[in-house]
Every structure is written in C-alpha cells, then in structure tokens.
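Schema walk-through. Below, the input block comes first and the output block second. Nothing else is stored per chain. Lengths vary across the set, and this one has 339 residues.
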Amino acid sequence: MKLSVETADLELKHRFTIARGSEDVVTSVITTIEHEGLRGYGEASPNSYYSQTPETVTEALREVAPIIEGSRPGAYPELLRQLRDRLDGNRAALCAADLALHDVLGKRRGKPIYKMLGVEAPRAPLSSFTIGISSIDHMREKVREARKFPILKIKLGTDRDLDIVRAVREETNATLRIDANCGWDVGQTITMSRELAELGVEFIEQPLPAERLEEMEEVYRESALPVFADENSVTVDDIPSLVGRFHGINIKLVKCGGIAEAMKMVEAARTHDLQIMLGCMIESSAGISAAAHVAPLVDAVDLDGAILITNDPFRGVENQYGQLVFPNRPGLGLEPARS
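--- output ---
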C-alpha cells in the first residue's frame, strides 16, 4: 500500500461563526491509499480546540506511512490497531488513515461500508442544516435560504440568544436544535431550556464548557430539554462519565479517530442508554460520506459540512435537503469531483 497526503482549502459559502470564533476557509487534510490498483480516500478536518492543526495531522500521517506501506494485504484489523496505538494523541490523523483504509477495503470487497457495518439499506435519519451566528437579520435571511431543510441547527452563545431563536421561529416551522458551543452557565442553560421548549426546540448541544462536567448533573436534572455532549464526547473512554450528566452524545469521526472508533462509541452509548447524534466539522464529501455510512445506526444526524462549502473536491453521499442519498459505488462511494 502507498499513502499520500495533501491539504485542501475548503471555501465556505457564508462566513461561519460559532461562540468561539469565525471562519471563511477551512484547511482539510486529504489522504489517499493506493493498493492493488484501488484508491481509498480519507479526510481529517482538524480543529484547534482539540490542539490539532493541518500541519500536526500531516506530520503524524507521514510518520506512520511506513507502517501502512509495510502492511501485508488484508491485514486491516491489525493495521488499524497499530495506527490507533501510534496516533492515540492525534485522533484526526487516525481518522484520515482509517477512512482511506475502509474505502480501500470496501472497494476490494465490492461493498459499500454501511453493508460491512451490518446495515442492509442506508436508511439514515434526516440531517440538520446549520445556521451560524450572525446578526439577527442575516440569520433570518439564512433561515429563509434553508427553507427546504426540515431540521435546523442554530448556533448560539451570544448575549442575544433568546432573541435569535424567537426570530428564527418566526421564519420557519422546521424542527430546531440548539448548539451553545460551551457558551452558557448552569442557570442560563436551565432558564433557556424552558424558553426554548416553548419555542419547539428538540434538544440542546454542549451548553457548558467541557471542564465543567460535574455541573452538568444539575443541568441534567433540571433542564426542560435533553442535552447532548459534544466537546465532552471525544472518544469511547469519555462515555461512562457522561451518564447522569447528558441524555446523549455527539460522535464526530475526526474527534474519535474514524469509523472503527465511532462504532465503539455507538456500542458504548447503547450500553449506557445514551442517545446518539452523529456530527461533523466543516469538511468535504470524503469525511461526510464516511460518517453517513454510520448514520443508520444513530438517532440524530448533523452532516451538512460539505454543503456549506463551494469547492468540494469529491462526490459521494449527497445531502439533499437533509436526506442522505448514497451512490451506487463500493467503499465510501467517493470519486474525485474533477474526474
């Protein structure tokens, strides 16, 4: 096998703002593994919140390239174990390698990844579409542009959060989900949950900063809405500590390390009676398609990263107004957009 690594600057249709900052362009790391005439593609869209950058991901992948290139054909489980051991401190790099390996394996077997995960037909929950923080008038405009999406995810963490949600609700009857991105405190979360419930919001994602995990016990008891962990839900090892503090978790492949690690999180969450949301970063159809193959196994989906950009380098699973449409191709179902 041969590994190659490159970066891609993904240009956003709109400036994307959350409680921690804004972005116009996101640099993603793209991996390609060539094996026996097949090409498998992977991706990692690293986030500085998790102390990872395109540079650290690229360096880590180049360090493990000899392991991948020296692996014997068909030894994928053992290879993934070796990579996990070497890349435990850089889960984004592990994700990029894991996705490319799964893609090659699916192509070798002539099967889409979802079938390899035990799903006969890819009937996934509808995906939400994200509305980033902006002026209320601009957010109203973005909601109108997204009128065909039945589920909207609203980014909050401002001094006008309730006004934003009220304005959004005036524009749409869509199901609303809220992501505070660690922007609230306990009292604010409990109070907001009651107001948001009256506005028809479905759930709240990560209201408190991750380091205030113990305080989530009060939120869990008093919130009028379910609360989902994101920044507190990184790998499978985090899940036991979330019981009694969150109603559900958000799994992101780039956080946990790819499809194999995501499947461990799915199993652990079910064991602990936690609901499961499958999320994404701003990423291309490589990362989104990989997550989509896991989507039939979860309760809620937020896989809109590729439709927020203008220059997707791949074609794969499509998000058609929230409905995930799988191509009739093996592996992740990807092909370069320029081909």
